[in-house]
Protein 1
Amino acid sequence: MKKVILIYGAPGAGKGTQADLLSKKMGFYHFDTGKYIEQTINDPDNSKNKKFQKEKEIFDSGKLNTPSWVLKDVVIKNTKKFARAGIRIVFSGSPRTLFEAFGDDKNKGLIEILEKLYGRENLGILYIDIKPESSIFRNSNRLVCSVCATPVLFQEGSGITVCPICSAPLKKRVFDNPEKLKVRLEEYKNRTYPILEELKKRGYKIDTIDGEPAPFKVFEEVKNKIS
């Protein structure tokens, strides 16, 4: 059955982890907007493209990228491809701004596009709730693979230095430091969270899940909600 899940939550809430689990266990395609953006702006073929380099500066600062660029060039174009193929999608933290979600007088937002492609009744929304201090701690200590971008959760005393998937060295992302994380949290609070309020006004049910426990425990709740 065609279905779309939107997972929201502050940076470090575990949106990507839960989307990956839905992909592996329940046949969803994980549409990671942030990863699409990061791959695009860091592609050597785009190194001389002024538009992409401007977006790279924004991305590395911890702020959200230009909504019109994200909506048209990243999200909608790819979403239509998956819909035509009948693929179920889970979005982790996207759409990220009111414009990306609902558009304006001249542009359709992602929500309207998804309603048309998948049907309103097949659109589910989850909110993973964590404390601000948990967000900062998780992101400040998070490492990712330098090759396959697999995130590695912090485990005190583990001493892990290579990726468990491909054995490449782990690295810390440019924007995963306390100061830039504060910027990201403000961006989330002011530009992303209002989407949930607007969705509620439009009659959507938002299922809230406690994101503080271990990911596998959170996933049990995720499965219960979407079932």
Protein 2
Amino acid sequence: MVKKDKVLLVIDMINPLQFSKAGLLLNGMKHMIDPLVKLITRARHEGIPIIYVNDNSGRWESDRDYLIREALKGTGASVVRRILPDSSDYFIIKPKHSGFFATPLHALLHDLGVETLILTGVAGNICVLFTANDAYMRDYKLIVPQDCCASNVQEDNEYALRMMNQVLGADTRAQTDIEL
């Protein structure tokens, strides 16, 4: 197990987009995919562990392979194909909004010796924000690259980023401006 002081969390991007407002979220995902691909590439180059944190979508018998298969059949398949986890990445399935709620995320971060979380993904105003809140409560330093996070509504995403910056102390600069 590689120990690093930072990890990259990719939240809810392995997503079949099977809900009523999925088109709005897909539009946001398409705008953030290029910066996210660059950030994932940079993280891999630097040896920073990548943890995919994904919703079980109410399906309790979900596993990593099932979620990936379903996402590749969904309307966002072209986005998902560009950021598929590789064999060295971690994959955690969550039942609710926060990546910490009822998951082994905190234990994994502890074992890796992590101090800083780089949070990316969707929806910025829900799952990314809730994960950031829980991370802050656990004394992690936060980086939330503004160009690697999307919500159904751009204004909601901007508000969530402002909150994470002003209240949680997150660095919300663009991924190109963040040193890994």
Protein 3
Amino acid sequence: MADRKRFIVLGLGSFGTALSRQLVENGCRVTGVDRDRELVENLKNLLYEAVIADVTERETLEALALKDADAVFVNLGEQLEPSLLAALHVKELGARRIVVKGVTIEHGKILKKMGVDRVVFPEVEIAQELANHETWPNVLDYMPIDPDYSFIEIAVPDSIAGQTLREADLRRAHHIWVVGIKDTLTGKFDLFPDPEIRIRDDHLLLIAGRKTDLNRFRELR
């Protein structure tokens, strides 16, 4: 497939392995690199390329054609120096997009100063998602836009079921915007729905707003 995306995963620990497996499942070509022979051997039949090498060495990275990859992921465990060194080399060698697994907040700040595109903290992000889901089970999906604004997909609160969007007037009452409505019975999705549409309890609402306002709306019954 000519348009298959190509990714390079540096470090095949638990996170790097899970990431590589999912990328392959998504139909991507993945090059995985780690100095641990056993980790590489475990994935060699899955990956497009499996390389045993030290990813903190510039010569290793020069041989990987980083510029041709859609993104390079750096996942080097809990040691800061190897992660920073690998990220520095990857940046200098012209990778288009760099995503690094963060270890500490300070580590993340240094990486951002270096020009890394994204720093991820998997345990923190999963913990936040789990906590939010258990706290607000009516919220089915959550997508941050920036530090202040987010989208959420939420089940219709009983207190507004049966009203039209105009009657519920969520923009005035809760400072949020209904961007879309999905009918869970038919799967039909209305983007920017008509104000006269009647909200049913089998609808899902796609809502945008400030996180503080969305958090208050989550509590609506």
